[in-house]
Here is the input.
Amino acid sequence: MITARSKGFQLLDNNIEVLRMGIESLLNKTKGIGWKKEFINRKGKYYPKFEETKSIDYNIIPALVTDYSNSFDNGAWLKQQVLLELFSSVRDYRNKIAHHDEFNESSLGILVRSLREAFKMLNLGSKFNELEDLRMSSIQPNIKGAALPRPYIKTSKSPSLQMAESDEEKQAYTQDKNWVYLNNFVIAESKRGLGQMICVEFQRGTYKGRRFLYSHDLVYDVCISHLETLDSWNTYGINTSSSSIRKDARAYVKEL
Here is the structure.
């Protein structure tokens, strides 16, 4: 059974790229392309992740709405105070999910509504990715029908990619498991031990439009020794990319 926490993580992950581009576009128009550098010079020490990555996430959005209030308030459909309340709610529920605080179906409902309304206010309503359990269920058999998906990179010189799959490996990729559908490749402490099979379809980069499948727990075990050397992992417990797959994980990822 997919938990409310897993659905919440999926909802946030499926929508962050659209929000990121929408907010960057808005601030680039109203503040100029140098706004990130200017913000970091003033407040970077309070937001070390943003200072390091320059990438907008759910924790930084309320700060941007507050700091650049006139960019998020045109006196008509876009109300800065309302948007701030919506994104503050999204941030708080995002942190509940990440920190394993109580998060149930009621919490998920509030998260969906807050995020949906924020998208509408930013004129991104048509791009909001709802949780569509029925759609996911309908496409799942087609994915599992590809009983032996081809290796991620056929031409790799890595010995592990040249080995034939064991019966155990075949079963891992064809068994009816807890499937999750994302637009980002992700390894997360919060997903550890959930037995999730993650199907990722990239929306940008070299692999745009291509779909890959992996066992989160298997990839976690393979990559954790290196992840633990990263400050970002020790701080946030997550490693993600919207355009690529970690090199040390590629031998354990299948293209569908």
Observations:
- Residues 44 and 51 are 5 Å apart (CA to CA).
